Amino acid sequence: MGWATRQIVNSYDIDIPDFSTLLPIFGTVGLILIVLEGGLELEINLSKISVIKQASLAAFLPMLFLVTSISILMHYAFSLSVYESILNAVPFCIISSAIAIPSSSNLRPLNKEFVTYESSLSDIFGVIFFQFCFSQSIF
């Protein structure tokens, strides 16, 4: 949606203010609100360690696989650098807790808890990985 908006704005020569200083703030606040909303339903104690471990793996491993796959595809299909390919692939690989948590409302409590942990951790891992790649020109 952002890309399409940018294309329309550019094609009609519409001047828009520079929001680049505000976007990180809104993004951080939005992520915190989404994760907190999901976290309000969770009770963290020692009996939940196995669910948290499984959810962490379910959030991280598929994201890593998909980032690798999509970035390789983008690298060869669009002749992007590896760095650009990874930066473009990461947003496609995050399971949004804004969608997953409300969608899990009809699941059994254990499955709903797993989806909440997994999608919240996916958001967190994705943002951390994206920010790390964006701030470090390591590729």
Radius of gyration: 18 Å
Structural class given helices, strands, pairing?
mainly alpha
How many distinct helices? 6
Instruction: Tell the overall outline.
Output: globular
Terminal Cα span: 27 Å
**Number of strand elements:** 0
Can you give the helix content as a percent range?
Answer: over 70%
Strand content: under 5%
Biggest β-sheet strands, sense, barrel:
none
Calculate the mean pLDDT score and round it.
Answer: 86
Uncertain ranges: none
Order of SSEs, N→C?
HHHHHH
Task: For this entry, give a set of tags.
139 residues; globular; 6 helices
Task: Write up this protein.
With 139 residues, this protein is mostly helical. It is 71% helix and 0% strand. It is built from six helices and no strands. Helix 2 (23-39) packs antiparallel against helix 6 (109-135), helix 3 crosses helix 4 and helix 3 (49-78) packs across helix 6. The longest helix is centred in the middle third of the chain and has 30 residues, at 49-78. The radius of gyration is 18 Å and the shape is globular. The two termini are 27 Å apart.
Structure in a nutshell:
The protein has 139 residues and is mostly helical.
Question: What secondary-structure arrangement, pairings included, does this model have?
Answer:
Elements: H1 2-11, H2 23-39, H3 49-78, H4 82-89, H5 97-103, H6 109-135
Helix pairs in contact: 2-6, 3-4, 3-6, 5-6
